[in-house]
Amino acid sequence: MSACAACLRRSALIGHLAAPIASMLESRRRAPEILRLPEAKLIASVGAAWAARATAYMESFDPLAARADVEQAGLFAICRHDGAYPPKLTELGDGPAVLYGAGGQARLAELIEEP
To answer: Of 52, 68, 57, which Cα lies nearest the Cα of 3?
Structure first.
């Protein structure tokens, strides 16, 4: 697995805040703007109750434990800083910080080559 700690952290934050983010998206329909917010602004945008929980969650986030969880689940994780990250997702400008998958990175490489 080759996702960097910063991208794993970002991915964990987005996952942790999935419910309030979904609620914001339903009402505002501005997914790209919301998901591009820096960590602190994203946390502040979800309201005080969620923000307090998210701050505590991020303070305890452990990238080594996150990597171990991914590996234990039999998955892989690559981030946009890795050469194996699909170029077409990079071209979108708002692709996910981390791409999680099953079947190994070799299978991902095969899929990238397909139309």
So the answer is: 68
57 neighbors 79 (Cβ within 8 angstroms): no
Provide the pairing of β-strand 98-101 with 76-79.
Answer: antiparallel
pTM of the predicted structure, to 2 decimals: 0.82
Rounded Cα gap, residues 95 and 29, in angstroms: 17
Q: What is the pLDDT of residues 31-70, one digit of tens each?
A: 678 888 899 999 998 888 899 999 999 999 999 999 999 9
Alpha-carbon distance values, 16 to 49, 73, 80, 108, 112 (Å): 13, 18, 20, 26, 28
H or E element in which residue 80 lies: none
Write out the H or E segment, with its range, that includes residue 61.
Answer: none
